[in-house]
């Protein structure tokens, strides 16, 4: 049966996203206030995908919960969990009657400690996932083209190094049983009207630029992009929006490199704690 999604938005200023999504998808958009658990996109209904966008305020990190609720076990995946909000996430998973099978990271985070270890200690059978290129510890290591299956759905792995060497983007699949429009969880590689810094952890501005253009901007323009962070209250964007309006990545690669080399960013306050803990 073809998936039909209703996207619920909390932020009125995100109506610009709807204007860049084709008319059939716009009909599935409605504006609502966020729930107690969620900030921004709160759910996808009308199909077999359950979706939640969760927020950790100290590091402005988004965690994403996806589950196939049409499957008898209601298998679920948690993307970029944070240790401080792991209990909140697990309570939500329990309330919704889901079975968490994977806790995945888009990269080795420098601004918070991942919640995967804490989650694994509280729920048996959960497997931690990260890219092999990250050189971090995990139960499952993924590479380009690998698929993380949960029920009839899956996340495809696309390598997007540049912020760190191990960054990946997780993209929902194509097909009648998959979310439409597609969804991409971009980590720190591509932010809403921005991108991750490239001045530490083996970062490279040129590599990040090439990653975005080859692995993310090649997706359909109505693909919904969900970053690991936002610092201005934004919740979601699209490929089409970022191609037009991203003040860094809409430029040519030489201009982009110049922008990134002159950001003069402060040393991340959690990096000396978070990176060793996340390795």
Automatic annotation (TrEMBL):
GO molecular function, one term: metal ion binding
Keyword Cytoplasm tagged: no
Main location: mitochondrion
Catalytic activity: S-sulfanylglutathione + O2 + H2O = sulfite + glutathione + 2 H(+)
Entry GO CC: mitochondrion
Domain of life: Eukaryota
Keyword Cell cycle applies: no
Entry EC no(s): 1.13.11.18
Sequence similarity: Belongs to the metallo-beta-lactamase superfamily. Glyoxalase II family.
Name of the molecule in the record: persulfide dioxygenase
Lineage, opening ranks: Eukaryota, Viridiplantae, Streptophyta, Embryophyta, Tracheophyta
